[in-house]
Design a protein that fits this description.
The chain is mainly alpha-helical. The protein has 2 domains: 55 residues, no CATH class; 31 residues, no CATH class. It contains 4 helices and 2 strands. Strands 1-2 form a two-stranded antiparallel sheet. β1 and β2 form a beta hairpin.
Length: 100
C-alpha cells in the first residue's frame, strides 16, 4: 500500500511554473502508475505533487512548530508572495485575493 493516502482535492489551485529534473518527472509518473494500481483510479500529476508536498509538510515537526509561532510580519510576507491580502479583525484573518 502506498505511503500516500488516497485523497480528494478540495482546495482552490493556482498554476506555478517549476523546472523538474528528468529523474523527478520519471518518479512522478511511476508514482502515478503505482497510485492508480493501488487505488483503482488515476490521479492527475498536479494533484499528486500537491499531496506529496502536503504529506511532507505534515510530517515535518520542526516546520509545524515554526508555523505555530510565525509572526504577523512573516504572515504578511507570505501573503504578499501569494498575492493575498488579509481582512484584519475577522476570525482567523480571512484571506481575500489582492486587488492591487
Amino acid at each position: 500500500m502506498p505511503t500516500l493516502k488516497q485523497f480528494t482535492v478540495i482546495d482552490p489551485t493556482d498554476r506555478i511554473n517549476l523546472s523538474l529534473k528528468l529523474s523527478t518527472r520519471t518518479a512522478i509518473e511511476q508514482y502515478r502508475l503505482f497510485y492508480a494500481q493501488a487505488y483503482g483510479h488515476p490521479v492527475e500529476k498536479g494533484e499528486l505533487i500537491e499531496e506529496i508536498l502536503r504529506s511532507f509538510f505534515d510530517a515535518d515537526a520542526d516546520f509545524a512548530k515554526f508555523t505555530k509561532r510565525i509572526t504577523p510580519a512573516d504572515k504578511a510576507a507570505v501573503d504578499k508572495a501569494l498575492g493575498l491580502a488579509r481582512q484584519p479583525g475577522s476570525a482567523g484573518d480571512t484571506l481575500h485575493p489582492d486587488e492591487a
